[in-house]
Amino acid sequence: MNDLQDVSAISTPVPVRLYLLRRLLQQLWQSLERARTRRLLAQLDGRDLADLGLSHADRLNEMEKPFWR
After folding, report:
1. How far is CA 65 from CA 22, 38, 68, in A?
2. pLDDT class for 2, splitting at 50, 70, 90?
C-alpha cells in the first residue's frame, strides 16, 4: 500500500487546461474560417481574381490545401 502514488498531484492545473481548451477552439475557428474563405475564392471569376491580384493558378494552389493549413 505504501508504494501507491498520489495521482491528485499529477493532474494538470486548471489555468493550463483552460489555455489548452482556448487554443483548441481558436484553431478550430481558424480552420473553419479558412474553409469558408476558400469556398468564396472558388466562386470568383477571372475578373474578380484580377481585381484581387490573383491568377487562376494562385486560386487552384490555395484550394488544394487542406482546411487545417
Report:
1. 25, 9, 8
2. low
